[in-house]
Prior knowledge:
By secondary structure, the protein is of the alpha/beta class. The protein folds into 2 domains: 2-172, 3-Layer(aba) Sandwich (Rossmann fold), CATH 3.40.50.1970; 175-360, Dehydroquinate synthase-like - alpha domain (Dehydroquinate synthase-like, alpha domain). 46% of the residues lie in helices and 19% in strands. The chain has helices at 25-29, 46-59, 78-90, 105-117, 131-137, 175-192, 194-208, 212-232, 250-260, 267-284, 290-302, 314-321, 351-360; strands at residues 2-6, 13-18, 36-42, 63-69, 98-103, 124-128, 142-147, 150-157, 162-166, 327-328, 331-332, 334-339, 342-346. It has a 7-stranded mixed beta sheet with strand order 1-2-9-6-5-3-4, sandwiched between helices. The longest helix is centred in the middle third of the chain and has 21 residues, at 212-232. The termini are far apart. The mean pLDDT is 96.
Amino acid sequence: MRELNVALGERTYPILIGPGLIDDAGKMLARLASPRVAVVSNEVVAPLYLERLVRPLQEAGVRVCSVILPDGEATKQWDSLNRIHDTLLAERCDRTTTVVALGGGVIGDLAGFAAATYQRGVPFIQVPTTLLAQVDSSVGGKTGINHPRGKNMIGAFWQPRLVLADTDTLKTLPDRELSAGLAEVIKYGLIRDLPFLEWLEAHMDALLARDAAALSHAIERSCANKAEVVAGDELETAKEGGRALLNLGHTFGHAIETGIGYGEWLHGEAVAAGTMMAAELSRRLGWLAGSDVARVRALLNRAQLPVRGPALGADRYLELMAHDKKVLAGRLRLVLLKRLGEAVTWADTPPDEIRAAIDACCE
Length: 363
């Protein structure tokens, strides 16, 4: 087992990474506020892991209730949030009840937002079961739901007490989901960790083959990068850089997800296509060479990720991107690449250049 910490003063919490952690109730028991737990999962993950998680807790005297939601991005909306609240109320859960998210990014975001809002905030633990959730969405405290006009537009910052990343769960992950998670892994190398990017280029085949050592290293390195960024800018308030840099490709990617309908593309797939748009725009601004863009494309291709977005039209992309959370005072701030391994937030990009980059990277 490997352990990292997200350093947030009194709210510092550990990220535990390793095989078989779902069966180790002791790791979770030490972080419970009371012997009461509400587990949120979905119809795909629950049959695989819910009993394994719950049984040792119950044997230790913990009272457990559960909420099982449909799978998929379309679930991340008000009705699902209300189902969680309904269960917490029906079970008479109090402020010391710990909400546990057992699943991927959708479940983590929903359960976290429910924990942030139930009785004005209850303890929360993340047990991510997808690569994307283990390397990104389970760490940092961003929770929320989607709105028809924009992804993740309604939510709260609510840090977990513990992140328990059981790498054995990746054995049951569909290939498409594994690749989607690799988009977020590649992101860390592009924005701030060139040696990691080079490592990914050398070990992509091992990651796709689910080599345990390679996956553990990628998860640990990704979490270490995110933990450091979050510790320095928890609420994404830095005027330049900071936590916003973690959104490379996301402004374009969120436009894809909203524009074609939530769930048609996986989040990581949309981020991959968005990353290509960001790289192409960086080239047009004179920061990246054509060979750098080709290098990004080659790595995403090897990860079996899309490198072209759907043909929504540049105007439609810009319309959707105008709802992005990084828009300040009417100005769209994009995360771009000064060079491979160094990202910046940039608000002075000519709209025509953005349109050209989108058109160059769409089907």
